[in-house]
Amino acid sequence: MAAGSAPGWALGVLGVVYLFLKLDFISCSQEIYGAMNGNVTFYVSKFHPSTEIIWKKEKNKVVEWDIQSGLEAFQSFKDRVYLDIGSGNLTITRLTKSDEGLYELESPGVRNKSEFHLKVIAPPPSPSTFCSLSDDGNITLTCEIMEAGYDIDGNLLQYSWECPPTVQCHRGLSPSEAYVLKKSDLSQNVQCVVSNPLFRTSASISLSTCVPEDNTRHRYVLFAILPAVICGLLFLKCFLGRHSQ
């Protein structure tokens, strides 16, 4: 009896899940990124023209429209919002950090919640690059944002390294570090790239500045010509000695 009811129980569960999805009872907050001082638009799906539209941020009204009274924006959003009453889409202009938060649409024109979590981000400043030479001759590269006052969100900021084919790069202990093997071409530049979901900036470092001059490729040129110079001097000494006798 119990075994025979198992298929029916499973079908019942699947039916409930399908019903929830079909009727849009399940809603998720969308993560939206907006550029500092820029504009952002919240696009509403499955919206039907209605007689009333209300947008809220953290339960406080941002803008309200109804067919009787028209449009009204509230608090700091005055003169900074545009509401498309046909689609329900909301556009906010001249974004600031205080605009971050959870936005929600309330209207008879939507059956499920339309929620958007806004994150306002600025372009990262150009990073500074540093290097150090280890005892085994390999190079450690470090990339950092040094500008004071920049709001660094560790979850959004990403570091990467771009190395020429003749340079052997390996990721370091942290994403802002990289290792370059000593047998690499030290005449090349390596680039550090810092990015977030909207912006990308970079800085390069010349590997030749990371090692003492006698550790660069020039030393091999010197070693190559040094025997020839010594032989030339010995030959000249012998030649002059013969003519002096």
From TrEMBL:
InterPro entries: CD2/SLAM_rcpt, Ig-like_dom_sf, Ig-like_fold. It is found in: Membrane. This is Lymphocyte function-associated antigen 3 isoform X1. Gene3D superfamilies: Immunoglobulins. The keyword Transport does not apply. The lineage of its organism: Eukaryota, Metazoa, Chordata, Craniata, Vertebrata. It comes from the Eukaryota. The keyword Glycoprotein applies.
